[in-house]
Amino acid sequence: MKRNTSQLLIPIEKETQSLESYDIYPAFPLKDGIIEAGYESLAKVISKEKVVILDGYIGVDWDEVSSTLKNLIESMGFKIKMVNVNNFLKEESEIQKMVLPFLRDSDSIFGYRTTLTLCDYFDQSKIDGIKISQDYDITIIYGTGASQTKIKGHLVYFDLPKNELQFRMRSSSISNLGITIWNTPKQMYKQFYFVDWIVLNREKKRLLPKMDIIVDQQRPGNPTWTTGSAVRGSLSQMSTHYFRVRPWFEPGVWGGQWMKERFTGLNPDVPNYAWSFEMIVPENGLLLENNDKLLEVSFDMLMFQERDNVLGKAAQRFQDEFPIRFDFLDTFDGGNLSVQCHPKPDYIKKEFGENFTQDETYYIMDASEDADVYLGFQDNIDPKEFRQALEHSFETKEVLDVEKYIQKLPAKKHDLFLIPHGTVHCSGINNMVLEISATPYIFTFKMYDWQRMDLDGKPRPLNIEHAFKNLNFDRKGNRVKETLVSKPYVESSGPDWKKIHLPTHPDHFYDIYRYEFEGEITINTNDQCHILMLVEGGSIELIPNDYPSQTFQYAETFAVPAAANKYRLINKMEGMAKVIVSFVKDEAC
Questions:
Q1: Whole-angstrom Cα Rg for the chain
Q2: Contacts of 204 (CB under 8 A, 6+ apart)
Q3: Is 270 left (phi over 0), alpha (psi -120 to 50) or beta?
Q4: Using CA atoms, how far apart are residues 280 and 327, in angstroms rounded to an integer?
Q5: What are the residues whose beta carbons fall under 8 Å from the beta carbon of 417, sequence distance 6 or more?
Q6: Chain centroid offset of residue 563 CA
Q7: Rounded Cα gap, residues 229 and 394, in angstroms
Q8: Neighbours of 212 (CB within 10 A)
Q9: What is the torsional sign of CA 257, 262, 268, 273?
């Protein structure tokens, strides 16, 4: 089995669903092209070329790709030479030594963003020895890094969504770049995040303008593909109108039932859903649709090609990094999250190589009457005593009296809790949290996890040492309610609408507004990318300048790029629609 997950494999053809339900496969229409399915049609196209370069991302099943295409093209009567670029990699021991400084402590889930490039993985003398023989009708050079040969040919790029990459990783069917041995999933993910993805994203950006064909290889034995020019044209169109990424969902030890009960199309045979990755650039993909078929490319392709259109004035600071993420944390009938904090800006830069830190907010989409959020310290907090209590609990497995040290605030629908770096926090049970945050997403320093095991029956790692280098003990007592709970106010209004500002903390580089309207409103982007979600109501219609309208349902995340300039939102249901809008503060650009 090449994937280890309870999540369903995306279909080639999108099934018709109710127009009034959350769409787990949102797709943008492909511009000026056709999406094909299967290796047969791909083989017919590349058989017309003399030299073919099959390059692609880590996790692609190159055994399937190479053997299937070889057999199909040979059956057409062509004589083929297959060249596996893996044969030109440096020795595995040399690659391991090369990446080791970026992996840091083997017991930690944290590393440091690599400075390596893909050429560092290859033996240049071997690459220089590659020759194209005239004795063959077609030469096919294949594998991750095939373009490093610098041989000109028809470039076919195989992409793989990050969720499917991780599902393959968990089944031990793939390994890290240049490595043949399998590590634990957590250590493999660490190397993907801090090394492989960075190296291969740089290469993907370099190759994107040159790709002749782009293939989505996530469905074993049945890829979908289209031309590179069609994908690039679609990305260009998205960058001036709208986009919604494909969300993906994960169970977790504290996960709840809210999404499981409301989102159609998810596998019901799981204990819970803890997360939905609604819009996280390093993880999500973009679906394109044509000819009743779906093709997925990575979200970062949009940023590589169109960052100025997407981010507007914020592009100068954030470059290719999309700055804001939306995700769901579901604890309905679930459990508390771990007690945690996030790193200071200088700490995340120095220790992990990130350009900005994980400043967060909790927007409460829904909550039971007994819902709470743990936020900030009690007024009498003693840092030394708190640390001793945490370490004692870790060593003895005794339950910690969390409320002795940390405040617990009631959580109500539409509340916004502010969680700048260094703030101790966690969601309690029976919350549906929309987490609006800066994009970094793995730098959670857990201090206490309620003495529970993960879904595999193993202890979840704690990061008490990291946490105490970042905790802000001044965020305590009355100061918590004064500075860490947003105080909404009406900034402007009309007969049937209100524009409500939900101020964030000065440490947050992004702002949050809520528009409440019965009919329709027009919003200017002011040269900023707007990330939106309908947080109350049934559905809304988006009309971005001259583009055909698009309807979004309750709880769906979508974005309007800066280059759209302005857009209209139309409430399609009776009653009041409430829409959250987040964007980078002008002073933070």
A1: 25
A2: 57, 157, 298, 300, 301, 304
A3: beta
A4: 8
A5: 361, 362, 364, 373, 375, 409, 411, 425, 484, 485, 486
A6: 23
A7: 55
A8: 17
A9: negative
314: phi then psi, degrees, rounded to nearest 5 = -80, -10
Pairing of strands 406-410, 339-341: unpaired
Contacts for 527 with CB less than 8 Å, ≥ 6 apart: 312, 313, 562
Candidate from 71-80, 105-114, 258-267 with smallest mean pLDDT? 105-114
CB atoms within 10 A of CB 320: 17
Between CA 296 and CA 304, with CA 301 as vertex, the angle to 5 degrees is: 175
Under 8 Å between Cβ of 437 and 360: yes
Q: Which position has the token pair 């001793």?
A: 388
Tell how strand 497-501 and strand 489-494 pair up.
Answer: antiparallel
Closest C-alpha among 143, 112, 117, 118 to residue 130: 143
Q: What are the DSSP calls for 47-58, one per residue?
A: TT-SEEEEEE-T
Q: How far is CA 159 from CA 147, 201, 206, 279, 310, in A?
A: 14, 11, 14, 19, 22
Sequence-distant (≥ 6) Cβ neighbours of residue 571 within 8 angstroms: 517, 518, 519, 520, 537, 540, 577
| pLDDT per position as a tens digit, 338-353 | 999 999 999 999 999 9
pLDDT tens, 472-515? 999 999 999 999 999 999 999 999 999 999 999 999 999 999 99
- Reading the block at residue 75, the tokens are 């059956």
Cα of 554 vs its chain's centroid, Å: 20
- Whether 356 has a pLDDT exceeding 90, the answer reads yes
Nearest residue to 42 via CA among 222, 274, 306, 233: 222
Tokens of 39: 């290796």
Place of tokens 């073919």: 52
The C-alpha angle with vertex 429 and arms to 190 and 335, in degrees rounded to 5, equals 50
Quick one: which of 476, 364, 347 has its CA closest to 421? 347
Confidence of residue 17 (pLDDT cuts 50, 70, 90): low
**Are the C-beta atoms of 65 and 85 separated by less than 8 Å?**
no
Q: Give the burial class of 359: count Cβ atoms within 10 A of its Cβ; 0-12 exposed, 13-18 middle, 19 or more buried.
A: buried
pLDDT (0 to 100) of residue 19: 62
Q: What is the b/e burial string over 129-138, where b = at least 16 CB atoms within 10 angstroms of the residue's CB?
A: eeeeeeeebb
Phi, psi of 86 (to 5 degrees): -60, -25
- pLDDT reported for residue 554: 97
Determine the Cα–Cα distance for residues 74 and 79; give it in Å rounded to an integer.
6
SS3 per-residue string spanning 304-365: HHHHHHHHHHHHHHHCCCCCEEEEEEECCCCCCCCEEECCCHHHHHHHHCCCCCCCEEEEEE
Closest CA to 123 of 152, 142, 145, 101: 145
Which residues fall within 8 angstroms of residue 63, CB to CB, at 6 or more apart? Answer: none
* Contact between 528 and 314 (Cβ < 8 Å): yes
Question: Which residue type occupies 125?
Answer: S
